[in-house]
Design brief:
This protein has 432 residues and is of the alpha/beta class. A seven-stranded mixed beta sheet has the order 4-12-11-10-9-5-8, with helices on both faces.
Length: 432
């Protein structure tokens, strides 16, 4: 017998009259797991509570920002203190300068940066910088990597590795999509071949260097070598989209984890402490092209918003304390070890892939290396597993293509609850 959600169902019916699908972001609809969304009333620490009073151990963490746990007292107090001074100024503040200094402390490759209001704005702006400084129109992205909903990035691959892209969403002009080239993640040879054929037309390569939007996948050494080669030989900029991985797979993001300095970096989520924030930045020679110093225009009324800046600053201050990130990483490793033990114990066709405080459980009999591998996983079983875990009071991302997130608020009690639930959910989901 599953949990009952009458209030959530009633809210979904109301919402569906006014909001497409009843949700303000598609994955929240739970359609990928064959269920209906639960509406959340409050969150604290490692837990969510829905409108029907059910409490869940949370592994979504508002898709990453809640690295220290939900509604951490120091962060909510910082937000309230900032709000009492004014919620928006549309003018420079000292906090913005302090934020830039704090971010650079974690990400030395970001010699200069600009705050925006979302991850999508950050990636969109970074692409504009890359095109502006190179004078080229073409960009390269990888299938399964999501960089926000800007038109240039909602593009799927054409008929061949070096072909033009085609729109992956209605409403995107084909003339714009043709400038985006899409390859398979970890396809080092395909990347080299594309640049050999069209390198003079390509401004940049944008990627989640450790992916989160098709589940957690690590790059191969050959793939990283190919990125370095196309930069050196063809002058293309390498943009790391670290909206998910920033402060998550390592204090200094995927670039610190992998030992790779990109030309430009995009941040979001954790850097705003759960409030809407994005940051893009990189080598000073490129960022000096941004207005008012240069010809690349970008602006935003709410950029550097004082509430979001206060939340982000406090989050980074706490995360930077000795042992904090290490503690979250250690819990993640224990959870990974426990899940792997359950998989071996039950003979399940599943793999756990983890980096730092992010992980994905794939229902696959081999490691997942790209989007084709991710699509080949047993997503029907993931749906059954997700529903079983929800009924056990464990809240997972409602899609087999997403990463889970751990926080500093997760501890021994949450680990025991999660593994106990997972043992039963793995067994029941195998029944089909």
């Amino acid at each position: 017998m599953g949990l009952s959600h009458p209030k959530s169902l009633a809210l979904l019916e109301r919402a569906s009259q006014l909001i497409p699908g009843g949700v303000n972001s598609p994955v929240r609809a739970f359609r990928a797991v064959g269920g209906s969304p639960v509406f959340i009333a409050e969150a604290k620490g490692a837990y969510l509570t829905d409108v029907d009073g059910h409490r869940y151990v949370d592994y979504v963490g508002t898709w990453g920002p809640a690295v220290l746990g939900h509604a951490r007292d120091e962060i909510t107090e910082a937000i309230c203190a900032a709000a009492r001074k004014g919620t928006s100024f549309g003018a420079p503040t000292e906090a913005e300068v302090t934020m830039a200094e704090a971010v650079q402390g974690f990400f030395p490759s970001m010699q200069m940066m600009r705050m925006v209001s979302s991850g999508t704005e950050a990636t969109m702006s970074a692409l504009r910088v890359a095109r502006g400084v190179t004078g080229r129109d073409g960009i390269v992205k990888f299938e399964g990597c999501y960089h926000g909903h800007a038109d240039s990035l909602l593009v799927k691959a054409g008929s061949g590795a070096a072909s033009f892209g085609v729109p992956d969403s209605a409403g995107i002009p084909a003339d714009l999509a043709q400038h985006t080239h899409t390859l398979a993640f970890n396809d080092a040879d395909g990347l080299r071949a594309l640049f050999a054929a069209r390198g003079g037309d390509l401004a940049c390569v944008i990627l989640e260097a450790i992916t989160g939007n098709m589940g957690l996948i690590l790059p191969t050494e050959d793939f990283l070598s190919a990125l370095r080669e196309v930069r050196a030989r063809h002058g293309a900029l390498i943009i790391f989209d670290e909206v998910m991985t920033g402060f998550r797979v390592h204090r200094g993001g995927a670039q610190a984890h992998l030992g790779f300095d990109p030309d430009l970096t995009c941040l979001g989520k954790v850097v705003g402490g759960g409030l809407p924030v994005g940051v893009y930045g990189g080598r000073a020679e490129y960022m000096r092209s941004v207005s008012p110093l240069g010809p690349v225009y970008q602006a935003g009324t709410l950029s550097g918003n004082p509430l979001a800046t206060a939340a982000g600053l406090k989050t980074l201050e706490l995360l930077g304390r000795e042992g904090v990130f290490e503690g979250i990483d250690a819990f993640s490793a224990r959870l990974e070890e426990g899940l792997n033990a359950l998989i071996r114990e039950g003979g399940h066709r599943a793999v756990v892939q983890r980096a730092g405080t992010m992980f994905t459980l794939f229902f696959s009999d081999r490691p997942v290396m790209n989007f084709d591998d991710a699509k080949a996983c047993d997503h029907k079983r993931f749906g059954r597993f997700h529903r079983a875990m929800l009924n056990e009071g464990i809240y997972l991302p409602p899609s087999g293509y997403e990463a889970c997130f751990v926080s500093a608020a997760h501890g021994d009690e949450e680990l025991a609850r999660t593994l106990s639930a997972a043992r039963r959910a793995l067994a029941s989901s195998a029944q089909g």
